[in-house]
Design goal:
CATH superfamily: Phosphoenolpyruvate-binding domains
Helix content: 40-55%
Number of strands: 8
CATH class: Alpha Beta
Strand content: 15-25%
Number of helices: 12
Number of domains: 1
CATH architecture: Alpha-Beta Barrel
Order of helices and strands: HEHEHEHEHHEHHEHHEHEH
Radius of gyration: 18 Å
Distance between the termini: 42 Å
Amino acid sequence: MTEPRFFRQRMLAGDKLVGTFLKTPTSHATEIVAALGFDFVVIDQEHSPFDRTTTDIALLAARGCNIPALVRVSGPDAILSVLDCGATGMLIPHVHSAAYAREVAALCRYKLGRGFATSTRAGGYTAVPMWQHIRASDETVTVVAQIEDPTALDEIDAIAAVEGIDSLFIGRGDLTAAFGDETPNPPAVRVAVEKIIAAARKANKPVSVYVGSRPDAEWLKDQGATAFVFNSDQGFLRQAAMKGLAEMRETLG
């Protein structure tokens, strides 16, 4: 497992990291995943029913288990509260332009304009001196831009070069839906993946991806991805339940 304070350092170094999405708004999945040795979790506000309170609970569990926790925020308005609650970093959806990348990066870094407070969990409830907190936050908060809109591909080199963006996350699901090609492994999506990875490489930034299977992971690793969000707590529950049910049906005849 990666200690939260070293997560950004490891990601920028290109270490192979494996995390998973958390879709269920409780503390339990965080504890279970941390105990198994995952490198990080991603609390998914965008596509699951995490609100501010349940996100806070999941982040508290992550802190208690010493596992890095990114939050895929529902929008830029959620960034400040999530960071104040002690998130290791952000996964920011629909980064469609360099201007928007600069906007969200600024919301995450004190030196770029993030709102200041130390009365928060991140600030040790005023126990951490002001400038110590500012320096530590700017050095450790990880900002990942999710590239999932075809329009982003027109500015992908500029997005990748934005100060404060640490990694590009390839949103293949949204890209597939946007291109409208129902064939397996649509060529336009593969071209988009290659273009995003080339831009990240040019900017010397790591690539993050979601994978649902080993072949998926092997292909994207070969392309140059280094941070892998594998499945989700709900996905693991469904798989285990299917397997267990099938075994019981077979046993009972």
